[in-house]
What we know:
Blueprint: H1 2-17, H2 26-35, H3 37-49, H4 54-73, H5 89-121, H6 127-151, H7 159-174, E1 197-199, E2 205-207, H8 211-248
Antiparallel strand pairs: 1-2
Amino acid sequence: MCxxxxxxxxxxxxxxxxxxxxGGNLYANFMLGSVAEVPAVxxxxxxxxxxxxxxxxxxxxxxxxxSICCIALNLVPNPDGMDATTDGKQAAWIxxxxxxxxxxxxxxxSWNCSYVWSVELFPTSLRAQGMGFLEITSLxxxxxxxxxxxxxxxxxPLLPFIVMGAFGLVAAVVVLWLDETRGRETLETHTTDTTxxxxxxxxxxxxxxxxxxxTKDNTNHSHNRIDSESExxxxxxxxxxxxxDSVAI
Length: 249
């Protein structure tokens, strides 16, 4: 899941930083990519609750879709490199902006649903620490995105989208090893059985004592000790009264 969050931060901000590489007007490209995030929220809500998609398929499939869009962008020529009289310049711009916006839509769906999925994967005792660590990994990916979107462009114009697409494909496969959490109760602790075998100081396995039974035994022992002390005090009081009466006689 850490690699998935890193990839989401990298691809999400990488596509945003690459708005100028789609051709045409930078501000129009960025606005269209941002607008694509609005339906991503509603689609993610529906997909996470869908019986067939669930959390895992939604996150993995969305990352796969975003990576395919990034790779497909390299197959469409940049309209800025075409002459004004070249046929298909407008079509190339529309195609690149459409692929960029669709890629932004998919990575937004994946990232939004990862919040739901990750919270349910962690037990309650580790949820805050786990989510904090995942946030850090996503921010590392976001901090890496300018170097990918702008730095790798100097090496080769096609390299930024290839790297983002490759990371997306790998992450989409890696997260499939995680459990689906839709319809399941979240764990309260990282150990679910208090009677499992543990090892003593000598390394030999021993049966762990049930906490509830141990508490009950301690309570019963305390009650028996209190009853015994009460009986002893009562007997002492009777003997003292008897001796006092004898002396008086």
